[in-house]
Amino acid sequence: MNMKTFRKRGVSRILSAFLCVLIALGMLPTSVFAASEGQHASSAYGDVVMGSDGKAYRSPSGYYTMTYHSDGTTSYAYHNGNVAYQHFVLSADGGAFRWVYCIESGIRFGDSDDGYYSEHTENSQYFNQLPATAQRGIMMASLYGWQPGAPLPISGINADDWYMAAQCIIWEYQQQLRSDPHSRHDHGKVAGNTFYRIVQGRPAEKAYNWILDQIASHSTIPSFTGTSAQNAPVQELKWDTEKKVYTLTLTDTNNLNIDLQALSDSGISVTRNGNKYTFTSKKMIMSPVAVQYRKNVPIGENMLIWGRSGWQTMMTGAKDPVSFYMQIKTETYGKAKIVKTSEDGIVEGISFQITGNGVDETVVTGKDGTISKDLLPGTYLVTEKPVDRYVTPASQYVTIESGQTSSVQFSNILKKFRVLVHKADADTGTAQGDASLAGAKYGLYKGGELIDTFTTGPDGSFMTGYYVCGDDWTLREIEPSNGYLLDETVHEVGASPSLYEVELNTTENNVTEKVIYGNIQIVKHTDEKDPDVNDSEHSDDANAGIIEKPEEGAVFEVYLTNSGSYEEAKESERDLLTTDSDGFAVSKMLPYGRYTVHQIEGEDGKAFVPDFTVYINEDGHTYSYILNNTTITSRVRVEKRDAETDQIIPIPGTGFRIKDLETGEFIRQEIYYPIPETIDTFYTSDEGWLMLPEPLKTGNYELHEVAAPEGYVLSKEPVPFTIDGSEAVVTVVQHNKPQKGQIIISKTGEVFASVQENDGFYLPVYEVMGLPGAVYDLIADEDIYTGDGTLRAAKDTVVATLTTGDDGTAVSDPLYLGCYRLEERKAPDGMVLDPEPIYTELTYAGQETEITQAAVGMYDERQKAAVELLKGLETDETFGLGLGEEYKDVTFGLYASEDITALDDSVIPEGGLLEVVGVSPMEDAPGQFSAGFLTDLPFGSFYVQERTTNDAYVISDQKYPVVFSYAGQETGLVSIKVNEGNAIANELIRGRIDGIKYGENPDGGDDLTLEGAVIGLFAPDTEEFNEENALMTVTSGENGAFSFENVPFGHWIIAEIASPSGLYSISEEQHHVYVGTDGQVIEIQIDNTLIHGTVQVIKTEAVDPSKTSEDESAEKESGNPFMHRLAGAVFELYEDTDGDKELTENDKLIGELEETDTGFHEMGGLLAKGYFVKEKKAPEGFEIDPNAYYFSITEDGQVVVIENKEAGYGFVNEAYRGNLKIVKDSSDGRKDGFAFEVKSKDGTYCETFTTPENGIIEITGLRIGVYTVTEIRNKASEDYIIPDGATVEIKTGETAVVQFFNEKPEKPDTPDTPDTPDTPKKPVPQTGDDYNLYLWGGLFALAMIGTGVSFFFCVRKGKNKKYRIAAGSVLLAFAAGTIGSALLLSGEISQYAKSKEAYNELHQYVEAVSEPKSSPEESADASDSRLPSVNFEELLQKGPDVKAWLALPDTSINYPVVQGKDNDYYLKHLYDGTANKTGSIFLDYENKPEFTDRNNIIYGHNMRDGSMFSTLREYADQGYYDAHPVMYLMTPKKNYVMEIFSAFVASPGESGNKTSPWELSWKDDGAYTTWLSAMQERSLVKTDVSVTSSDRVLTLSTCTNNGADRFLVMGKLIETE
After folding, report:
1. DSSP per residue over 1282-1302, as a string?
2. Can you give the pTM of this predicted structure?
3. What is the pLDDT of residues 131-180, one digit of tens each?
4. Dihedrals φ, ψ of 702, to 5°?
5. What is the number of helices (H) and of strands (E) in the chain?
6. Average pLDDT estimate for 555-573
7. Upper half-sphere CA count for residue 1435 (Cβ side, 13 Å)
8. Whole-Å CA distances, 817 to 267, 718, 852, 854, 1423
9. Is the predicted pLDDT of residue 1213 greater than 50, yes or no?
10. Cα separation of 1501 and 1328, whole Å?
11. Which of 130, 574, 1470, 1487 sits in a 20 to 30 Å window from 1300, CA-based?
12. 362/384 Cα distance (integer angstroms)
């Protein structure tokens, strides 16, 4: 547009005056006028647009604008610019003037009277020519730009700043320099930054950026809302237990920071804190309610286009309200359902405590065992209150969700007990006498009802099976064990459930019994003849004439027979009896058993009574015996024998009665001591027989047994016998059957009897029943004898194998009485083998019982399963997840994976739920949890599946199989580890945040994607965004992309913390993101701007201007050097591409710093990155600094000065240094006093030294380089010939040695002695190719011609015979010549071929030569060259004289070097001694084979076929030398690079002269230096190689083409690694 002055003509002058008044009053910016379509308005210029910085805004200098034409075409116009802008103002209908915006840049604007006419945008022809993006952009710029009465949106600006910023953006859209708020671009001739230049760097730039930000986010609504009620996300308000309201705080990840205005009253309030919005409701909202909100964008007037033909088009107003929706509901009650099952089926009336979220309430199950409780969403702890009869289950967490039912199941297991009974003797605790604690029968009673019976084992104990705990369980003895009295005490078991906590419990009961006690009474007497009766008076009565005399003082030991002796018997089981004057003695009360009565003292001359046994088996009974020393003659002997073995049963106490068949009465006989009495029952002694006290009279009798021997059945059949006087003693035998017994085993255990179902939970129920299939070995637990002494079963013999039947019982065959044990060999299916033997005893049940029984009850534990699982909740310490109480939300269910049928055909169906458990933390294992299922599982297939988990985790839907199958009888508890013992992992819900990093293009144009920006992910409450506070950091990649992988569930902030490689300033944007679903991808964008800087290096050396040998030490002490700049250094600048602050091969070379002044190097325009300055080349003679110095540009305009030493000293180089040693000698031996000048090549060093007494001068610390050492004539040297000066090269860290020899001339005998050669002339080998090849070829050609001519004359007609004969002779001669020359020519050619073949074969021992360097400068560091590798070990086997290998890359020179005893042999022999005219490359025979001489000469033929040294001739050409500046020499021990410094032609006649190229020795280094100089001066090519007396030379010598002269190539040898 063209800026014009306000013209004051006519009415416009009046308007202008009026306008000035208004401006003066300060009313213009806020004055408004009502505008509508169809209005007319006057126009004028207002005040200059003045920024808040006090400066006017001016049009850009020299710019183009584009003009739209009515025919749809466009054109461009150029403007000089740099004119101050004035406000464009309009006044409608005579109202106040107001600022308006121009939308037609480049067109003139001026004052008018009602010249402008308003239209709506859709009716404006001009406006509709603009692209849609331009129309939208203009409207949006006006909307967020200055509007009448609007407050300033940001600080630091005024209204003019705001107005100017909006106007520039409007023009950018109108000129199509932008199509969106994010970027500008050129359009035709109009530069993209045309209008941006107006505000750049001015206060309006801040408003410019703000407006663009608002435009960019105008249509952006809060991230948690939708554009319509239908697509709005549903947000659920949570109950706040403290504030008693429903509330939810949401973070707007779009970061709009706008207030929300509800367009209707929904009862929901909203407050904002930054980008966080808190919604609150006091009432519960069951179903989502749509709430409409409006964005607080400016609400202005309708947009109008103001047109004036031929003049600028203007605009006013803008309106574009933005509204959005939310679907809001609140948490509703969820339902907690507690399901109760129990082993006994009682589920009613069980109390539970529910706590959490402000709830602490007790609830009770109903008849169906369930509880339903409405609770607000959250996690609660459910705890069952203890009930005595049950094992209290673990508490469980239940997570309530709104409107959902969450169930927990508690299964009650009854507490059970078993009784371990220990039977003991009431007096001693252990069994006394022959009494046994085994075999006592006890009954287990519940409420007085006998439930089961048990028999004590050998140790007097027994164990019951398991029974449900109760308070009314008792224990009573039913039958006592052998030798004991019945215990009638009722014993309380101690099975009250209140005593126990776990399912299976053991209680111990100790019971006692009184043993049977009796005593023994003895009457001892002696039968003597009655002195008053003679023998003749004796009658048939056996006792006639006999009197009984009591014996006093007889002593008897009484002891338990099983003890073996009186001494071994216990005190309670023995006694010592002494008869009194009546022959009477009685024992103390002795416990049950058989006792031996053994006489140990008696009346002199009287026989002792044989031992006899007394069986005490009746409590309180006295056993009386009358003992007579004289054997009683019995008329009847009764023997007790075993019915099976017919062996006497040596057991006392068998009682008999004898019946007189005549009278039918039992006989009675008299005994007299101690008390006379008549007896009718007679007992056997311990020998198993008896003699009746009195003889029986003749008659018929019957023997009736009234008391059987211990262990035998009473014989009820009388034994008849007759007394007829035929025998003095009648023996009557009575047989008894040994009593036998049967062992009855009863095997019980739990079986899966039924299934209880309660509200979807299934509980297996078990009952104790008989178990079939148990197999027991019945084993003798002692040697089992019957009373007759017969061994019936040896100890540990298996006497029977019993298998339980369907009812769980088994009965043995009749067995002999004794102790047995039962050992289970096979447990019933599903049961656990009992490894402990069960002891039982078949004890004597009395003489009336033929078959006794011992019942043994045995209980096998059912094999059970312990199902355990490990739970792994992924922890993320960085994000603080998985470290709290998330585990409380995790539950697992145990399900049947098949129909599992109980005994009563009830079923746990497939998929049936048995139990739900929560998990508990494991100690010392963060993130690891465990759970165990309490359900007592039957055999079958099950699975475990996760039911719930925390919101931050991905729930697993995998079913983990749990197979419980019988694991064999040896296993009591089958441990089943879910998921093979591996933790069932819950991984965190994770998403990915993808972003692209954009930045200003360093080259201009569109923004670039940026690599290397460090982006951080932060917690939402982070205040300072730096790397230390970042939870994660990533770096943008090559395409500007960055990605935060595996970002866990939650709300996070993304912010830049380090600019991309330091190139850009850090973006202040913050992006709020929410990760709520697994795999979620969130996309964001971050933008940056560029900064620049400069690097400088000042190259210096520390020097002292007064430095001399005398004051050198003073300088060191002063410590005050000053800096001297050095020219010629080269510095490279590298970009730290990989950002590791270490120079690597990955870092990019930017270029070399420019040396703008001596020693001053600089490079500007550096982007804000990390860089390295590295010295590429040091000034000549100085050490290069190998370090790379890192610096970074971090601020715009920053200047970085690189220094490598102390600050302020610049970039310092140290000179390379070495040492020089001068050795002086003379012909007369004098060494001291000679003066030498040492001068550097560049003249910077020149010092004079004098030799000491030993003639050695040592100079240390010289800079490297070439020095000339020259002897200076002084008094000491005036009588000597001064030697030539020597050049020497000082190398780093080395000591160069130069030797000088002074000759003192002697006066000659004759004045004029003719000159003689310096040394004897040594022949130079003839190394040219011979001419035989041409000779033989020429002869062959002449012979062929002669042969043809002769043949012609021979066949020519007209000649005489003589003529023809002569011609024929000539023909023959020429023919012979032809053949001979052909053979010689062929031989010559074959030698070339054989030579080539021989040398080609050797190439297998040499690796290929690396590419040569292209110039002498590149090959300056010869130690870096890569040389061919030669296998000398095998090569020497081919040619023993091989000393080295010489190679010139890319040429035919690639040969072994041999050395002979002279210089002739290898002229005509190959390396292996084969004769051949091409010969070999050979070393002068006088040279050392190690190439350590100063001049090492190698000869070789100049062959016409291009082999050998023919290539050397090329070195006469400068170009050839430039391409081949070095050769390689390899020896068995060392390798060398030959740097060529001279190539020239010499005559063999020079040999022997001091300047001969074939010279091998010199008197001193000066002479050698002179020779080197002479060789360099003769060079046909120019080289930069310097040689000094320190160097060794390799000379290559060959003939020139004419053979008269020699062509030589010389180089210095540089040893390589």
Report:
1. PPPPEEEEE-TT-EEEEEEEE
2. 0.46
3. 999 999 998 888 899 888 888 989 999 999 999 999 999 999 999 999 99
4. -130, 140
5. 12, 105
6. 93
7. 26
8. 95, 25, 9, 10, 110
9. yes
10. 5
11. 1487
12. 9
